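Hello,

Our lab assistant flagged a job as stuck in the queue for most of the afternoon. It eventually completed. Since we weren't sure the result was trustworthy after the delay, we are filing this so someone can double-check. Below is the sequence as submitted and the structure that was eventually returned. Let us know if re-running is recommended.
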Amino acid sequence: MSNVLPGVRGVGLGLGGCHILLAGPGASERGWLCVKDLVGSDLPSRLLKVNGSVEFIALAMDGERICATSEEDEECWVVCEEFSP
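-- returned structure --
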C-alpha cells in the first residue's frame, strides 16, 4: 500500500504528533485523536491492518498542514494542504 500512497510519506505533520480522524465504524464516536507516529512511514498500510481502511484526515499540531486520504472505487486519493499563519 505504501507504493500506492507515496504522498503520505514525509508529509511532515510534526515531530510532536498530530490530530487524526479515522474513517470506518465507530469513527465519529471516537472523534479527533491526538497521536504521535513512532514508526514514521507506511501510515496508510498500518491503518488498513488495524482499522480496515486507509482513509483518514491528519492535522498538524500547529494547524498549518492537513493531509487526507480517501478510497474511491478502485483508486486511492491523497490530498495535502499547507496553510500560512
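-- support follow-up --
The delay was a queue issue, not a problem with the job. The result is valid. The helical segments are 27-30, 43-51. The two ends are 33 Å apart (CA to CA).
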